[in-house]
Amino acid sequence: MKTVFHVNDVQNLDAAVANIENLLVFEPIEQIILVINGPAIKVVKDSPQIVKLVAMEKVTVYACNNAMKAHDIDYVLEGVKVVPAGVYSLTQLQLTGFAYIKP
Question: What pTM value is reported for the model?
C-alpha cells in the first residue's frame, strides 16, 4: 500500500501525523509521503513533528518549492525533500497508485 498525505494548513499537521502513525501499524505499507504546501510550508524548517516523520522508516516528507518561495523559506530540516511543485507531486503520486488523504 502506498499513501500520500496532503497538508496545506498548519492546523492539520497534528492530524496528519496521527494518521500516518496509525497507518504504519498495518502491513503491508510500501511507502507514505507527506506533501506540504501553502501556508503550512513554514513547518518544514523547525517543526518537531517533521523531525519525527523523517526519522520514520517508509515515510518521506516533501516540501513544495513554490510555497517555500512564496513564504520566503530558504531551508528545510534535514531529511525533507524539496519538490518543484506540491500539486504536481500530488498528481504524479496519485497517477502511480498512491491513495490520497487530506486530513
Answer: 0.96
Distance set, CA 26 to CA 67, 75, 96, 97 (Å) = 32, 33, 21, 18
User: Pick from 100, 66, 59: which is nearest to 82 by CA?
Assistant: 66
Q: Which domain holds residue 15?
A: 2-101
Handedness of CA 82, 88, 89, 90 (dihedral sign): positive
Number of domains in the chain: 1
Q: What residues form DSSP beta bridges with 99?
A: 3
Q: β-strand 80-83 against 99-101: which pairing, if any?
A: unpaired
Write out pLDDT tens, residues 64-83.
999 999 999 999 999 999 99
CATH of the domain at 35: 3.40.1260.10
